[in-house]
Amino acid sequence: MLEMHPMSLPDTMAPHPDEALVKGKIVLCDEFQGTTAVGLVSGAAGILIRTLSPKDVANTFALPAVILSQKDGTIIKTYINLTSNPTAIIFKSNESKDWLSPSVASFSSRGPNAITSDILKPDIAAPGVDILAAWSPNSPISMVIGDERKTKYNIISGTSMACPHVTAVAAYVKSFHPDWSPAAIKSAIMTTGN
Question: Where in the cell is it found (predicted)?
């Protein structure tokens, strides 16, 4: 169990909290980007209150963290304010069924197209959330400056993570039908995929 400390951070992440106040503590952050500052000032972990961030996006942080809804964040704030020595434990994550699957993620191309309303939807959709992919060892795992951890793989989300799935399917089809055009491959995927 670690002592907790509340912290409010503007979007710019400045000013950073006093290191002496948060060192070795779990820090409650009002802003989703809060763990950036917590990690830079030796906090042990972060409890982040979700504001506008979509619920179907995975995040990688520079230190242990949990993301709460506004409602749960308010309960934690009340606990901190009514307790002389607030403490918390962040337990290991548990595997669970993703009930949003197979929906297209909120950040991805659901359609209709915002620029050309004649395009009603993407023709082919693929996973783009929590995808294990190659990662440059020159880039921090959490994309936070000061995070020294290095790895060859990372779990990230984004429309760009869906592209390799569809590309691999297209390459697979092309390996059996090298003379097919891109339109023929697209048609085959659209009419046989599920």
Answer: Secreted
**Claim to verify: residue 111 and residue 171 sit in the same structural domain:** yes
DSSP SS3 for 65:
strand
Distances in whole angstroms, Cα of residue 53 to Cα of each of 13, 48, 50, 119, 143: 17, 11, 6, 26, 17
How deeply is 75 buried, as exposed, middle or buried, from its count of CB atoms within 10 A (0-12, 13-18, 19+)?
Answer: exposed
The two three-digit tokens of residue 29, written as one number: 């952050």
Domain range holding 185? 105-194
Residue 121 shares a structural domain with residue 78: no
What was the pLDDT predicted at 9? Answer: 42
pLDDT digits (tens, 9 = 90+) for 14-42: 445 577 778 888 888 876 655 566 666 67
Contact between 34 and 46 under an 8 Å Cβ cutoff? The reply is yes
60, 88, 116 - which closes a domain: 88
Residue 82 CA to residue 129 CA, distance in Å, equals 38
Q: What is the CATH number of the domain that holds 18?
A: 3.50.30.30
